[in-house]
Structures are given as C-alpha cells and as structure tokens.
Amino acid sequence: MTEPAVAPVCYRHPDRETWIRCQRCDRPICPDCMTSASVGFQCPACLKEGSRTTRSGRLPYGGTHSANPALTSIGLIALNIAVWVSISASGGARSALVDKLALLPQTTLYGNRDGTTSLVEGVSGGAYWQLATSAFSHVEVWHIGFNMLALYFLGPQLELILGRSRFLAVYLLSGLAASTAVMWLSNEHGQTLGASGAIFGLMGALLVVGLKVRANVQQLLFWIGLNVVFTVTASSFISWQGHLGGLVGGAALAALLVYAPRQRRATVQWSAMAAFALVCVVLVGVRVAALA
C-alpha cells in the first residue's frame, strides 16, 4: 500500500506545512512568507536579493540592464543585411563572396557551366573564418527575411533577461555550435550559410530560461516544433545539421548561465562559455584532421 506523501514545511516556519515553493530558490514557503512575482512566488530572502540586484542594475543571472534591449539585435540584423546586399550586388548565388563566406568543410573542385573548374577553399584548407562568416551570409531574400524577423522578435526578449554581453555570447557561440555540427554531420563538399543556427540557439536558450523560472513555454515549444518539422520536411535545401547544432548549443549555453552558482557567478559563467567555445574549436580541429 502506498504511503501518503509528507507535505513539506516552510523553511522559515517549520510548524507550517506548505506545497508552495519559491520560484527562485525552490524552498518551501508558507502564505505569510510568499510574495507574488512575475512568475510564481518568491521568499523573503530572494525578494531581498532581487531588490539588491535591481538597485545595482543587475539582472537575475548577473547581466546588466540594457537601455535598449533591441539594440544588439538591430546591430546584428544590420550586419546580416549588409553582407546580403554585398552578395546580391556581386552576383547573388554566383557571387565570389559566397565561396569566400559560406561554410565548406573540405576544399572542393567544382565544375563551372563554361566547362572550366574552380577550386573553392574550405575549412580543411585553412578557411577557418567560414565558421563565423557563414552565420552572417544569405543569398535568397526569403532566407534572410525569415531569419532577421525571428531575430527581431527573439533577440530582445533574451537580452532583456541575460543582458547585452551574455546575449551576444549566446548568439555567437550558438552560431559556432551550428558550424561545428555542419562540419561533422553535413556533406563535406556542400556549402552551408545563414543565421538559422544562431536563431535556433536563441530558441533553445529561451526554452531553458522559461523552464528555469517555470513559465508557460507551450507557445515556444509549438514554435520550435513547427520549425523542426519544417527543417525535416525541407532538409533537401535546409541544413538540419546547423539547426540541430544551434538548438542544442543555445540550450547548453543558457543552462550554463542560469544554473551558475551565485558565488562568483560571472567568473563561472564566462569560464564555462570559454570552455564551450574551446570544445567546439577542438571538435572542428579533429574534423579538419580527418578530412586532410
């Protein structure tokens, strides 16, 4: 026979049973100790800590408030558009910039329409910049349009939670994670470009943050699921490898940020993200060695 569950007791009033928990520290609190928060309730200790960090301009996970949380996303959008305009003005899909900026795992000899051949340098041939530049390069207008629209809506939300520097780190490192996945999982002779990996990273990061604060993430899960279905059904021209790498990378990076201990939080967070970047670089190095 199953024994009835024992109700937890308030950590400040051991004589009071309660099933309510503080949404920040997860300790049980009674009605006299709880204060309504944006999501759930907070205990007096966390409320005091929140007031202290708010006065100091700090966000819940150590970042600083941005005067304009959309500014970083707008800057990233402007950079992507500038690269797209340059590619479009120099020939679009046939632009030499595509061969320079798109991610190509292995240096490849391509045949041209006029019967000649062109040797396109890839990461295995020393074009390591493609790991980063591919995340800012687009050819089709629908591709950049969809990605920049998603960045415009998702980016400010995450920057509002993490602060500018941490948001930018998540975005860029998600792009690196996407490039790493492409290096290992894609055809080594196929070119990949677009900000989709970094955008999927933002989705993964927002999902982790939402789960951490026990928010309703149903709409976000629906959006992620819709994009996953689209990625799978259109895998003939969409890099599912980059999307997967970005999604997993963004989720992992957000976990490193939101679950970092409060003591020496910034040191732990930036060290963990540096280690994440190092792992990606090592994985790319191993793949390059295998392709040589």
Annotate the secondary structure layout.
Elements: E1 35-36, E2 41-42, H1 44-55, H2 71-89, H3 96-101, E3 108-111, E4 117-120, H4 130-133, H5 141-162, H6 164-185, H7 196-212, H8 218-233, H9 240-258, H10 265-291
Antiparallel strand pairs: 1-2, 3-4
Helix pairs in contact: 2-5, 5-6, 5-7, 6-7, 6-9, 6-10, 7-9
Keywords:
292 residues; 2 domains; elongated; mainly alpha; two-stranded antiparallel sheet
Give structural notes.
There is one protein chain. The protein is mainly alpha-helical and 292 residues long. It has two domains: 56 residues, no CATH class; 221 residues, Rhomboid-like (Rhomboid-like fold, Up-down Bundle), CATH 1.20.1540.10. It is 56% helix and 4% strand. It has ten helices and four strands; from the N terminus they run ββαααββααααααα. A two-stranded antiparallel sheet has the order 1-2. A two-stranded antiparallel ribbon has the order 3-4. A hairpin with a 5-residue loop joins strand 3 and strand 4. It starts with 34 loop residues before the first strand and ends with a helix. The model has no long low-confidence stretch (mean pLDDT 90).
